[in-house]
Amino acid sequence: MLVNPSEQIIELLKLQQDVGYIGEPLSQLAHALQCADFAAQEDADECVILAALLHDIGHFCDPRAGAMLADGIDFGVHRHEAVGAEYLRLSGLDETIATLVEQHVNAKRYLVATRPAYAAKLSAASQQTLAFQGGPMLADEMLAFEQQARFTDILKLRAWDEAAKRLDVSLPPVSHYSAMLRRNKTQRLSMAELAFFATNGYLHIKDWFNATEVAAICAEVAQLQALPDSPGKWMKYYEHTARGKQLCRIENFLPYQPRLERLARGRSTLGLISELMGESAVLFKEKLNLKLAAGNGFAAHQDAPAFTSFDQHYHITMMLSVDETTQANGCLEVASGAHLKGLLAMNPDLTMTQTAIDQLSWQSVETQPGDLLLFDSYLPHRSAMNETDRARRALYITYNRQGEGGDVRDAYFSAKRAAFPPENERQPGMVYTGGVFNVGNPVDK
Ligand SMILES: [Fe+2]
Ligand SMILES: [Fe+2]
Question: For residue 374, what are the CA distances in angstroms to 37, 92, 204?
């Protein structure tokens, strides 16, 4: 059976639970988890967090690797940074992770050469291994080292490495990093997944974010919901339901929510969308659909006719399920494969005609919190109202091809604000139909 490299990495780390961290009174696993947690606490990129977790994997990923022996004492694998980096490359992880791991020993050699106080504070084991590792850096090595793109991260990683020697701290288990590993590979999707998307026009990826990560996303979304209506900033839209007027959508919020901004434009998300597009993807726009209890559904439509303002012809939307989405609360329904038919017959408001709707077969795609549903801008889709008494919230983040006009996000929201402003920015007596900015959705006009 083929072993999934990410799972193998997790298993390897688990095996280090009782293996001592060379010269220190804690296990390799405890050291790795502490190091990753320091990175996470400082809001480091996911690649940096994973490099922190995996920096010493060279000590235990290859049983054939030679040891550093001094006076009969085993100081671990010789050139463990290179052994580890090579293993991570072969496992298909993002090159940034391997590079950071590869440089963590050089960081020590650099700091010893540039900071006398650092050299004086090195642990006994670390002083012993320094000689094996090439000793303090020479001047020309230091210059080259400082020129690296990830110079700052490399030094931070070293600082966490040295601090990650605490005893009796309780941290998330190593399985917490499984989802993150999957998101930070050079190739995130299998050929089967790419083929499914090409044939069906959508792809459901389960558990892209784990429960802890979803809880953090939920907290961001709750903050977003609580923001007051504020002219010129985030754009809040309302609908009328059996329960009265309620918030149904928020747009243009990424400049005010840095964590969601990182989610939308982070390396792993852009990498994922780019794999589906077959070329570099760039963020087009973002929205949060709330579909609170009794919230209305969306009429059947394709996104493509609404996304033509900037002479663009292809988009992919990533729906991130914040709450579970079910048939009862109005999950997305798609006409699988119908994206290949091009633009279908439309009413003047750009929703699909009843005849066009009736000619397709529709299926519900139910999702769990943390799942993604990626879909092509030509895929017909719709959703029913929320019949439950709980919200059905989902983020919809849309991307265009870098080659089709590049980053037009700000221009898009300026145009939308002018044509279909949020309620608090509307002029009394004016009629706003929304046009291409309001297709198939239940927003109050
Ligand atoms: Fe190390
Ligand atoms: Fe270490």
Answer: 30, 23, 6
Give the pLDDT band of residue 1 (cuts 50, 70, 90): very low
Domain finish residue from 157, 183, 209: 183
Closest ligand by atom to 84 CA: 1
CATH number for 64: 1.10.3210.10
- Centre of ligand 1 from the C-alpha of residue 320, in Å: 37
Mean pLDDT on 137-156 = 97
Q: What is the dihedral of CA 435, 332, 203, 381, to 10 degrees?
A: -40
pTM of the model: 0.93
Q: What is the pLDDT of residues 244-302, one digit of tens each?
A: 999 999 999 999 999 999 999 999 999 999 999 999 999 999 999 999 999 999 999 99
Q: Residue 82 CA: which ligand is closest?
A: 1
Ligand 1 centroid to 158 CA: how many Å?
9
Query: In this structure, how many other beta carbons lie within 10 angstroms of the beta carbon of residue 50?
Result: 26
Q: Quick check: is 43 in a domain?
A: yes
Give 104 Cα–ligand 1 centroid separation in angstroms: 7
CA of residue 379 to ligand 1 center, whole Å: 49
Domain boundary among 183, 218, 237: 183
Number of domains making up the chain: 2
Q: Which ligand is nearest to the CA of 161?
A: 2
What is the tens place of the pLDDT at every residue in 60-111? 998 888 777 777 777 777 899 999 999 999 999 999 999 999 999 999 999 9
Q: Each residue of 365-399: pLDDT tens digit?
A: 999 999 999 999 999 999 999 999 999 999 999 99
What average pLDDT score do residues 25-45 get? 95
Query: What does 314-358 look like in DSSP terms, one character per residue?
Result: -EEEEEEESS-B-TTTT-EEE-TTGGGG-SPPB-TTSSBPHHHHH
C-alpha 52 to ligand 1 mean position (Å): 10
346 shares its domain with 419: yes
Q: Quick check: 343 pLDDT over 70?
A: yes
Residue 9 structural domain: 5-183
Q: Which residues pair with 374 in a beta bridge?
A: 203, 318
Cα 57 to averaged position of ligand 1 atoms, centre (Å): 8
Rounded to the nearest whole angstrom, what is the distance from the C-alpha of residue 162 to the centroid of ligand 2? 7
How remote is the CA of residue 55 from the centroid of ligand 2, in Å? 6
Please report which residue ranges of 25-123 form alpha helices under DSSP H: 28-41, 46-54, 80-90, 95-114, 116-121
Asked if residue 195 and residue 178 are part of one domain, the reply reads no
Q: How far is the CA of 242 from the centre of ligand 1 (A)?
A: 61
